[in-house]
Design a protein that fits this description.
The chain is mostly beta strands. It has two helices and 13 strands.
């Protein structure tokens, strides 16, 4: 435990009903899994990020487009319409946490607006989840508006 972080024990990620194939230990790489309301996006260890990205790519059937900043290789899609249409094109992502003794498991349901950011191009959206190498799992404020 690190006293400066609000740490949680993340044990699984489910994208569109399919659990990504990583060990629960993968989330505790580096400083572990922490909530950080001062960070906009979310960052996962490489092994987790790669599986989440692959699952999103397999489930989204829109045209991919370059990201708004050419310095980054964002995963972006065009043709999604406005925010009210996102659930038609993008899957929900569920984060599962280790339950406290005697408690049911806790799941954080991320609807598309909890993990996407709007591209500068109208109707285009990008994945707001990024590769954090081996540093840890950082759950940013975009997903903190999600439903438990």
């Amino acid at each position: 435990m690190h006293p400066a972080y609000y740490q949680v024990e993340l044990i699984a990620t489910v994208v569109g009903g399919n659990k990504v194939g990583v060990s629960p230990r993968a989330y505790s790489t580096g400083y572990g899994a922490v909530f950080d309301s001062g960070t906009t996006f979310s960052y996962f260890p490489s092994s987790v990020f790669n599986e989440i990205k692959k699952a999103v790519v397999n489930q989204v059937h829109l045209s991919s487009v370059a990201g708004p900043d050419p310095r980054y290789e964002d995963l972006c899609y065009a043709g999604a319409g406005d925010e009210s249409d996102l659930s038609k094109h993008f899957p929900d992502i569920v984060l599962e946490f280790k339950p406290l003794p005697g408690s049911p498991s806790a799941k954080l349901i991320l609807h598309p607006m909890n993990y996407l950011f709007a591209h500068t191009r109208p109707g285009a959206y990008c994945l707001g989840i990024f590769d954090n190498g081996s540093t840890g799992t950082l759950l940013g404020k975009l997903l903190l508006a999600a439903s438990l």
